[in-house]
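Deliverable D2.4 — example input (structure tokens):
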């Protein structure tokens, strides 16, 4: 019995050092997203052809990161989510690419909370028949979450993500019968906010 207790204590002592060693220089991750955006509700007097976007959508995110220390990380995060609309033939897709700084707490434990923030660019796009409509603009990301490490090289991720976007340019495009296109750009001054619940996993090298 004493030998079993001693072995168990040695294992418990060794786990933190093994988990700490998991913080390699590079990590890759994949998240599944539940996307939530602000959307307008139908109003009396709206034209019959008006299209309304569903507030809740789904998507995925992929990230590549580098550990600068056991607590400080940088990552490049790309994400995309789709939202249905009141027109079954129209879907709104929102994508983004951001550079984010992360601060990870408790680097020697299996459960590691983290905070992050970043900057990048975003795009929303929809299409109907020969028409394409796109808006572009810069944005800010921020959020928090938990990494739970299973051994040295793999961790589950659970978090909440916020994206504040300043839409600057709207582009309308018409696809002609011969395959060519005609487009027009219009400056816009609108902002929007998206919240995302994320769940996924990451591999650490």
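Example output (designed residues):
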């Amino acid at each position: 019995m004493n030998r079993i207790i001693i072995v168990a204590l040695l294992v418990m002592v060794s786990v933190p050092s093994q988990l700490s060693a998991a913080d390699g220089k590079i990590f890759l991750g994949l998240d599944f997203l539940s996307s939530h955006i602000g959307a307008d509700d139908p109003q009396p007097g709206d034209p019959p052809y008006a299209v309304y976007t569903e507030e809740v959508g789904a998507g995925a995110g992929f990230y590549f990161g580098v550990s600068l220390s056991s607590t400080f990380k940088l990552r490049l995060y790309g994400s995309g989510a789709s939202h249905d609309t009141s027109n079954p033939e129209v879907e709104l897709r929102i994508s983004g690419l951001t550079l984010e700084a992360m601060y990870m707490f408790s680097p020697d434990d299996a459960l590691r909370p983290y905070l992050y923030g970043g900057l990048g660019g975003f795009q929303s796009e929809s299409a109907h028949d020969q028409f394409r409509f796109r808006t572009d603009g810069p944005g800010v990301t921020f959020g928090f979450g938990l990494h739970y490490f299973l051994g040295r090289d793999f961790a589950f991720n659970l978090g909440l993500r916020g994206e504040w976007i300043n839409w600057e340019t709207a582009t309308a495009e018409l696809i002609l019968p011969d395959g060519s296109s005609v487009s027009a750009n219009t400056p816009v001054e609108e902002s929007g906010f998206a919240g995302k619940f994320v769940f996924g996993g990451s591999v650490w090298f």
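The chain has one helix and eight strands.
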